[in-house]
Amino acid sequence: MGIENLGYVRMQMTDPQAWADFAVDVLGFGIADHDDGKGSKYLRMDDAPFRYIIEQGDEDKFVSSGLQLSSAEAYAALVEKLKAAGVQVETGSDEEAARRAVTAFSSCHDPSGNLVEFYHGRLDGSPFTPNNNIKAFITGDMGLGHLVIPAPENEATEEFYTSLFGFGISDDLTLPPPAEGAPNQRVLFMHAENPRHHTLGLYNFPNPTGLIHLMIEVGSIDEVGYCMDRVKKAGLHIFSDLGRHSNDEMVSFYFFAPGGMGLEFGFDGKQVADWSQYTPTKTTSGDYWGHEYDFPQIGE
């Protein structure tokens, strides 16, 4: 068995409380009653113990994904597979596993330098209702959403996640170069063993935050619209307006959260019931409509 879903993410912030306040007020998350004694904030989206770990640090950056495996046997098999391939694997301590609310976890780096954590045995949480009149985030067995990370060592990183972690390819998107003289942009979208169209995306350029974006999914267009209003009221920069993607059909918008973290907030993402019947796609346009981009210029 491969990766089931994206179970948690870790970010480092100079002010974790400010990020937690933003997540409650703008996103509709909750704050978990989980104290590690290090100033971290643990954020809830659903009945899991938490989904986002916001750690105290001297700079704002994305730290790691947390990928869930189905069993102790699947976890042990992945550790051995990685070691056999020459990947350096670090096993987490019992204390660090408890901080993540998992039975056991290990970590390694992909060929582009991204830290990857993987685990089994997520501990039980408690019932949770989102804030801001959001009925529910689309999570559960599909995990917290999806993650797109910088992968300048693109082909090697693709091989790492497909051959070792068992991700399947959903869509291979090619876009024009971001600047004259640069190569084409490529975003490789990959699915885990759940119906969400993609759980992981690889973008072939670096990013100083260590993150391209995280996706948060809700159940209605109104919940997306109300969040857009809250983002504007908070003075956060929307770098892509409302639109519908052509591969996963998500209706969404994008903005920069505190610390420069790119977030996508959307609904109606495609789900695939049987991946054995799915044919991966190759696309050259990211959207059916909308998603006009507006990135801040240097100095703004």
From TrEMBL:
Name by which UniProt lists this protein: VOC domain-containing protein
GO MF entries: dioxygenase activity; ferrous iron binding
Family from the record: Belongs to the extradiol ring-cleavage dioxygenase family.
Biological source species: alpha proteobacterium IMCC14465
Keywords: Aromatic hydrocarbons catabolism, Dioxygenase, Iron, Metal-binding, Oxidoreductase
One Pfam family linked to the record: BphC_D1
Highest rank taxon of the organism: Bacteria
Residues covered by the VOC domain: 5-121, 143-268
Family annotation (Gene3D superfamilies): 2,3-Dihydroxybiphenyl 1,2-Dioxygenase, domain 1
Listed cofactors: Fe(2+)
InterPro entries per UniProt: Glyas_Bleomycin-R_OHBP_Dase, Glyas_Fos-R_dOase_dom, GlyoxalaseI/FosfomycinResist, VOC_core, Xdiol_ring_cleave_dOase_1/2
